[in-house]
Amino acid sequence: MGLLTFLDAVIFVLGAVGILYQALCIIVSVFAKPVVFPKAPTDNRFAVLISARNEEGVIANLINSIRANDYPQDKIDIWLVADNCTDSTADVVRGMGEHVIERHDLSHIGKGYALTFLLNQMIERNQAEQYDAFFIFDADNLLDPHYISEMNNGFHAGYKILTSYRNSKNFSENWVSSGSALWFIRQSRFLNSSRMVFGVSCHVGGTGFMFSREIMERNDGWKFHLLTEDMEFTLDSILHGDRIGYCGSAILYDEQPVSFAQSWRQRVRWSKGFLQVFRYYGSALLRRAIVERDFSAVDLTILISPFTLLYAGRIVLGFIFAMVGFVTWESQLSQIWSSISSIGVSFLAMMGLAAITVIAERDKIGASNKELVAYCLSFPIYMASYVPIAFEALFSKPDWKPIVHHGQKASTAPNALERA
């Protein structure tokens, strides 16, 4: 059947390109000298933007870690939007002497809308123009004491948009938190670091990034409201010709979900968001990749392509064609057996990827060797759950639900927050 043959070819090409690119990134990041920004004057003025919904249990930890940074504190202002809060988040932040703007709008739910509201308020009050750049953090984050200084170095080096090293506060809590943490650490250590060596744009994560006033003014504040507003921001920036940098020496600690149900909901939202950005930006990104010969556009096109959904859909379509007699059952059973074999190889590859990540970043991961072995073995199970998640995302209603945070201290690299 021509359609199935075409799908097989597309899946093979996408899969092969993705695997080879991942392997190349690992090799480059291991052997190439990482990009290090020279020390720069601490003369930039920054606004820290935080969207928080019922985060009274963790928000003080983030603010304290910002205020403990070695960057001149008179050049850092913290702005929090208390987004539909029903707890005392706003009062806690006001009591710490920081700027608070409250938002009450249950018809437009999500971090993107909250950031839009916050920046609009700052612009209307003529307060946004006093800053050279803006940081975005989630309420559960913690920062290394040198975080802002290191990002300032990258900003002085000419990057209008910068992302940072995303570590985890609770890596060793269980196999769910470790699975998510390994994924983000891998992205920082292998993908973004090698992208800097290649001289192409990096991928901005949902937290721990910075953009200049020029970018803010071009966007009239914040205009990104899809479920994965970080990816939307990334793609829009690349389409504008911006080069997004990565500062590996700026370390942020994020809290990962520990409940599989909570992790599932979060990743359904991410998967739905990736489908949204593929729909709205995929063709423009591919066009830029071809016309402008922009490898950043090629890289991100591969990233947002719904490969998992395409792969699973191919199996289902093969069954349907076999049932109606378009193809033989023997050919499809052979395809299924080949898929099972591929899944087995993928499981081993995922274990290997987890092990390489753990070995490369051992000094940044706070877990025992026994725990690390167990989490490397469980990582493929965490990743395999993306297959049913992709299907649910295809049919689920787009929505945004907050993740419950518990205020853990950083258990990853326990001495990191005390480094001089």
CATH architecture of the largest domain, by name, is Alpha-Beta Complex
| Series of secondary-structure elements, N-terminal to C-terminal | HEHEHEHEEHEHEHHEHHHHHH
Number of beta strands: 8
Largest sheet: 8 strands, mixed
Question: How many individual domains?
Answer: 2
Helical segment count: 14
Which range does the strand content fall in? 5-15%
**What is the quaternary state of this protein?**
single chain
Describe the model.
This protein is an alpha/beta fold and 420 residues long. It has 2 domains: 2-30 and 305-395, no CATH class; 36-277, Spore Coat Polysaccharide Biosynthesis Protein SpsA, Chain A. The protein has 14 helices and 8 strands. It has helices at 2-31, 59-67, 89-95, 111-124, 147-156, 175-198, 213-218, 229-239, 260-291, 295-304, 307-323, 329-360, 369-384, 386-395, and strands spanning 46-52, 76-83, 99-103, 133-138, 142-143, 161-168, 209-212, 244-254. It has an 8-stranded mixed β-sheet with strand order 3-2-1-4-7-6-8-5, with helices on both faces. Helix 1 packs across helix 6 (175-198), helix 8 (229-239) packs parallel to helix 9 and helix 11 (307-323) packs antiparallel against helix 12. It is globular and about 70 Å long. The relative contact order is 0.14.
